């Protein structure tokens, strides 16, 4: 099943060619151009490309896995981590035609959150095991461990960029939402509904969406949007300005 969001409601559109779960995709893809790859059962290398109307099977992953992480677009993507069924650190780069293995994550993991592009991505939390708060950033050639999440969790969602990201939901905490500013993590407004095994989308941290998930047992169809508060600017006239001890 595939559904499309218009900002207020979901509409069913043409289905994937292969039914599966635990798949991932190009998180910075669009409604007219994105990828869906990996998943189970059984564990698969399958990769499909969406053109806004239909899914087409394209070049397969080199390593079959599920609950991996993905970043990028339909023509320039990364697929990293996941279960094979054991946790793996393998990282593959997609050029629009085929996948090439590139430098691995420092920590093997699955069920992590992700954001960013093929050349600037972030991997957040996950299940190693044990449950991890490890965070790594990708610069196009290698992964670097950076400041950890405040709360260990897996089954999380992510949105944004490698220097400005959100990591939300996940087990065992459920509703926690943390913001990454490129150097450290700060807890911000929590989700309205605690859950794990969710997914996230959004090219910026200030405009993210958290999709479905499960509280265990049972599943949610809930979608939640996150938006930073707008900045209110005062309108000043020439006579309103008063400067003291400085320049402007």
Could you explain the architecture of this structure?
With 248 residues, this protein is mainly β. Helices cover 0% and strands 39% of the residues. It is built from no helices and 21 strands. It has a four-stranded antiparallel sheet, with no helix packed on it. A four-stranded antiparallel sheet has the order 7-8-9-10, with no helix packed on it. The chain is globular, with a radius of gyration of 19 Å. The relative contact order is 0.10. The model is unreliable at 229-248 (pLDDT under 50).
Strand and helix map with partners:
Blueprint: E1 2-5, E2 10-13, E3 24-25, E4 34-37, E5 47-50, E6 55-57, E7 69-72, E8 77-80, E9 91-94, E10 99-102, E11 113-116, E12 121-127, E13 131-138, E14 143-146, E15 157-160, E16 165-168, E17 177-180, E18 185-188, E19 199-204, E20 207-213, E21 220-227
Antiparallel strand pairs: 1-2, 3-4, 4-5, 5-6, 7-8, 8-9, 9-10, 11-12, 12-13, 13-14, 15-16, 16-17, 17-18, 19-20, 20-21
In short:
The protein is mainly β. The protein is 0% helix and 39% strand.
Task: Please count the beta strands (DSSP E, at least 2 residues each).
Answer: 21
Query: How many individual helices?
Result: 0
User: Which consecutive residue ranges, at least 5 long each, have pLDDT under 50?
Assistant: 229-248
Radius of gyration: 19 Å
The strands making up the biggest β-sheet line up spatially as 3-4-5-6
Mean pLDDT across the residues is: 89
Which class do the helix and strand fractions yield?
Answer: mainly beta
Cα-to-Cα separation, first versus last residue = 56 Å
Q: What percentage of the residues does DSSP assign to strands (E)?
A: 35-45%
Tertiary shape: globular
What is the H/E string?
A: EEEEEEEEEEEEEEEEEEEEE
Largest sheet: 4 strands, antiparallel
**What share of the residues lie within helices?**
under 10%
């Amino acid at each position: 099943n595939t559904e499309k969001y218009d900002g207020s409601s979901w509409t069913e559109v043409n289905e994937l060619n292969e039914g599966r779960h635990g798949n991932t995709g190009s998180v910075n893809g669009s409604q007219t151009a994105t990828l869906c790859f990996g998943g189970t059962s059984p564990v698969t290398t399958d990769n499909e490309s969406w053109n806004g109307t239909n899914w087409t099977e394209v070049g397969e992953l080199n390593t079959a896995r599920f609950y991996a992480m993905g970043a990028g677009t339909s023509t320039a993507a990364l697929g990293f981590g996941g279960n094979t069924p054991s946790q793996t650190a393998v990282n593959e780069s997609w050029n629009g035609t085929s996948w090439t293995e590139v430098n691995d994550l420092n920590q093997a993991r699955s069920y992590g959150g992700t954001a960013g592009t093929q050349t600037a991505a972030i991997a957040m939390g996950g299940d190693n095991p044990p449950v991890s708060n490890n965070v790594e950033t990708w610069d196009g050639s290698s992964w670097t461990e950076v400041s950890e999440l405040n709360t260990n969790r897996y089954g999380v969602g992510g949105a944004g960029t490698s220097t400005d990201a959100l990591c939300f939901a996940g087990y065992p905490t459920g509703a926690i939402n943390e913001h990454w500013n490129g150097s450290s993590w700060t807890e911000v407004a929590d989700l309205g509904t605690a859950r794990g095994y969710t997914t996230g989308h959004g090219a910026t941290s200030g405009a993210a969406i958290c999709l479905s998930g499960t509280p265990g047992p049972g599943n949610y169809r809930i979608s939640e949007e996150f938006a930073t508060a707008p900045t209110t600017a005062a309108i000043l006239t020439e006579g309103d300005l008063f400067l003291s001890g400085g320049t402007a």
